[in-house]
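tool_call: predict_structure(chain=1)
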Amino acid sequence: MKGNRQGRIVVTEHRKYRTRIIGMTVSVVSLLLVLGMTWTSPSAAGDTQTEQPRGSDSPAPMNLESAKKIAVARVNGVSITMESVVEMMNNMRSRMMRQGSAQQQNMDALRQEALNKLILQELAYQRAKAEGLLPSPAEVDAAVQRVKTRLGGEEGFTAFLEKEAMSEKDLRSLLETNLAIGRIIEKEVSGKVVITADDVKKEYESKKDTFGTPEKILIADVLFFLDTHSEDSRKKVEEVLGSLRADPDRDPQKLSPDGTFIVREVEITQGSDAELFAAAQKIATGELSGIVTTSDSLHVLKVLKHTPATNVTFEDVRDALEKKLRTDAQQEKMKAWEAELKKGAVIEIVETKDSGH
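tool_result:
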């Protein structure tokens, strides 16, 4: 293994091109993101200084060339530089902001997480190389051609490289790395995850009640504050009901409350109010009920709208459930694989004044 291969270790990104390029080269993007496999052009860091995440404990900006030379860790002899860590931190902060997690994170914790991602990237690449999974020059050529096609040809490709301050050699290095890591992840993580039809069916059955929507009825409810067992109370309700029936619109909202009742519009389901729901189910839309007696009150109802239940079948959600099960299983497998990668690896954390240790 060569000494410093940091120019090949692709670490961060602030721009939309990351999704484009990685999407063109591998089919395991979600797992690559766990490792932080992304790209940031050198231009994103500025011409003379590395861009540091700002915080009360942020180290002072340093010269870009100096950051390139400072090794903060070595993985089986391969250096990871301060520049790479800072770029990874910037990328992680940008991603958190896009996801709405803009709260200030402890800088030491962010730095440690960024370094851990870079270590895992390097270990994954080294495993891919040991397994003979590095792409051939012809395969990298084909990947470059796909990028050119996506960018509209040579002119768009050249403009992209200029904007990102990348050389074609830089891009080839990015593609070669991503292809290699994508292949080893496919072989040792995603390719080993098996989701059967029975697994998906069991997941559906266990969460069946959460799919679809229940039957709903929108009612105008004249709710009386009267004794449910009193004959006088029932006479009062009959009087109000008679007024409603005499109204051509049969509109409860036209009633003038006298302190014995209120009128409310409410959408009910079997789960929200079983007694009123059972009564409302017997009433056609636009019609009035008789006197409805519940366990604690008297009502007159008018059904305004009836919305039938929607049922979600297994076929409706099978693909989505399978995808979720596969993603969850891959993430668990990835955690175990990360631990396995570190076993036996020689990982040296270099204590330097500038690394914050």
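agent: The CA atoms of residues 213 and 310 lie 5 Å apart. Proceeding to next step.
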